[in-house]
Amino acid sequence: MSDAAPEPEGGEEQTFLSHLVELRERLLKAIAAVLLVLIVLLPFANRLYHLIAQPLIEHLPEGSHMVAIEVASPFMTPVKLAFYVALFLAMPAVLYQLWRFVAPGLYRHERRLALPLLVSGVLMFYVGCAVAYFLVLPKVFLFLLGITPEGVAMMTDISRYLDFVLTMFLAFGLCFELPVVVVLLVAMGWVTPAQLIRQRPYVILGVFVIAAIFAPPDVLSMVMLAVPMCVLYEAGILVARVFLRPPRTDAEGRRDASSRA
User: Which domain holds residue 197?
Assistant: First the structure.
């Protein structure tokens, strides 16, 4: 009697060298996709920076403006932004190359689960960045300008502003991955939807703690991050209950067989 596990789909086992060659090809294609988008965006780097700075510029008092402290920052900061935007836009192509590399080594049921999680993870990260840009950043800068001491002119450095905005995008993008994490945990069998429901009060408390750490200092921004995370947590539980079924154990299978006999 053989207990050997079934081999993953994808034909004969490749050699280690062939895996390295394929990995190099996939990495080169991913890098080429990012560079191609970057080349297209470079002529519009200053316009991109103006667009990303709009939430702050709209709330600056009359006569105030942003400044460039470092000598090369007027050139390097827009180029840096263009690179991150290129990486952001080319991420589907990068993840597609990653998928083409790992997919042959996955079982069929793993493929059916991994691809939707990968796509939904990218989409939720985009949604988190959009929420940060359109909803949170204008409120943050309105709050910060409102508490600026009298006699102090707020003139933000363009490089530090970009770092702040990118940090906000990363924080909100990662926090919006919560439903994907929930579905993944259920799919791996580490937790069940019933356990997630029982732990809801502790999760809500943890969500507000995370929002207090990563959101800007005002209460409104914290709530704008925490409330969507709570909703996304419930959405993850709902998706897991609808589309995922816990694996049947041998004992359950024997009980079902005996009940039918």
Answer: 16-247
